[in-house]
């Protein structure tokens, strides 16, 4: 009797396991993420399970919010300093009582695998077992083997990139370097993220620019001084070990302005005399400026367009940024990136890693673009798309046009330190399953599939993000 939908070739599972075994124990390269560097710089014991695994995880808190459970009840800090739940066990029990909401979601997969593989606790999360699971994880957190640096070693992390603004003095990274953990070729490095000094609509933009100028020793009252300050801060980041920049814009639009027009727009921004259209134009222009700087200083350039930031205005008003209020939107790449690619797309000195939140663009725009410009590589599915099914769809839709070697490997893009090995493991399993399907169909010999497996998991991200010295 036929079984539609099910994989019917019995060889597939075995081949997938064999290919997964090729990559299972390779070191982890984490070239893009948002772990707080203080975590590893200070190496203090983790707090309770709730503050470690629930409070900072906006995948978790946004699902609960969708069912009417406000972030206050989950201990998420308020912008006004108002009261929120402070009892970690109450927060944990609240998640357990609503665990059914996460059926079929990657959040459940990541958390359950974290319980089992990181904390070696095999207690299911239910309303009745919540306290038992909490106590078992809390006991683990009290052990020296579960402090951040010890876990870093156990995870097999070779390099972890955090993300900082040019207004950051990099003091945490200086401490990491002093301890032998940071600096060029170090295990923990930073990523240069200039959004808060580029986005004219950002609250406090002028103050951020002034702060950057102070750190750089440049006068940012002029556009020329502003560009000089950005270059000085990039130099400071590179001295601290940074190999890439990251740019999170609402759209992928790029524009090539004359220096005079850019200066006028910048000066109007300082006066607070700009529209939303002006802000979009300035962001679009600065992408080309950063590409020019990357050719000069060698930083890999990551573009993360497509998020409608803080779409949930009530959530932003109460709790600020990065708490689950952002929504993906349709994004044009073919026309939006044309000025950038016309100017720099054929320059092999430039390396652009392009991400999307709009998977309808995978085969229509992104794969053909990556297959047509030597400067362009496709970043892994991220945020809303970093799920087993979406990662599989990514491989199925981009490989035809871009192949494997115009993609940049997996990035975990997470603040949740303890989920890093789990996320990489899921990505490796997805790639193993996809490669196994090619072997089963006689489209790829097994030895080549095994070589590709190791490249996707380890060699590609290490090379593309210039981490060879790690």
Automatic annotation (TrEMBL):
It comes from the Bacteria. GO terms for biological process: D-galacturonate catabolic process; D-glucuronate catabolic process. It is an enzyme of class 5 (isomerase). Pfam families: UxaC (PF02614). GO terms for molecular function: glucuronate isomerase activity. Keywords: Isomerase. SUPFAM superfamilies: Metallo-dependent hydrolases. InterPro entries: Metal_Hydrolase, Uronate_isomerase. Pathway: Carbohydrate metabolism; pentose and glucuronate interconversion. The keyword Isomerase applies. This is Uronate isomerase.
């Amino acid at each position: 009797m036929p079984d539609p939908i099910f994989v019917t070739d019995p060889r597939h599972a075995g081949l997938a396991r064999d290919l997964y075994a090729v990559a299972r124990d390779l070191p982890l390269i984490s070239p893009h993420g948002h772990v707080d560097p203080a975590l590893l710089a200070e190496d203090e014991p983790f707090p309770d399970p709730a503050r470690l695994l629930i409070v900072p995880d906006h995948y978790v808190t946004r699902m609960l919010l969708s069912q009417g459970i406000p972030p206050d009840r989950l201990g998420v800090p308020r912008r006004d300093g108002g009261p929120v739940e402070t009892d970690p066990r109450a927060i944990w029990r609240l998640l357990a009582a609503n665990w059914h909401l996460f059926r079929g979601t990657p959040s459940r997969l990541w958390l359950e695998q974290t319980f089992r593989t990181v904390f070696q606790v095999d207690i299911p999360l239910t309303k009745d077992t919540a306290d038992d699971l909490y106590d078992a994880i809390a006991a683990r957190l009290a052990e020296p083997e579960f402090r951040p640096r010890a876990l870093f070693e156990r995870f097999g992390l070779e390099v972890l990139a955090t993300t900082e603004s040019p207004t950051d003095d990099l003091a945490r990274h200086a401490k990491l370097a002093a301890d032998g953990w940071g600096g060029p070729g170090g295990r923990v490095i930073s990523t240069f993220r200039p959004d808060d000094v580029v986005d004219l609509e950002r609250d406090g933009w002028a103050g951020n620019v002034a702060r950057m100028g102070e750190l750089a020793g440049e006068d940012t009252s002029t556009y020329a001084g502003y560009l000089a300050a950005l270059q000085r801060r990039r130099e400071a980041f590179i001295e601290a070990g940074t190999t890439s920049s990251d740019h999170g814009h609402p759209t992928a639009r790029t524009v090539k302005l004359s220096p005079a027009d850019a200066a006028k727009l910048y000066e109007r921004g300082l006066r607070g005399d700009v529209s939303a259209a002006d802000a979009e134009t300035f962001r679009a222009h600065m992408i080309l400026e950063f590409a020019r700087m990357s050719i000069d200083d060698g930083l890999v350039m990551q573009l993360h367009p497509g998020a409608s930031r803080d779409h949930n205005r009530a959530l932003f008003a109460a709790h600020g940024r990065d708490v689950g209020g952002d929504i993906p939107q349709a994004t044009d790449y073919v026309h939006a990136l044309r000025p950038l690619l016309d100017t720099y797309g054929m320059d092999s000195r430039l390396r652009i890693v392009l991400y999307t939140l709009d998977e309808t663009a995978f085969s229509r725009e992104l794969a053909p673009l990556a297959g047509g410009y030597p400067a362009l590589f496709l970043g892994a599915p991220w945020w809303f798309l970093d799920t087993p099914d979406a990662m599989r769809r990514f491989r199925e839709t981009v490989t035809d046009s871009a192949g494997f070697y115009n993609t940049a490997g997996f990035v975990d893009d997470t603040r949740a330190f303890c989920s890093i090995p789990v996320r990489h493991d899921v990505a490796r399993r997805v790639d193993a399953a996809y490669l196994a399907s090619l072997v089963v169909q006689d489209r790829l010999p097994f030895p080549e599939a095994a070589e590709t497996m190791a490249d996707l998991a380890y060699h590609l991200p290490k090379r593309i993000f210039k981490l060879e010295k790690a």
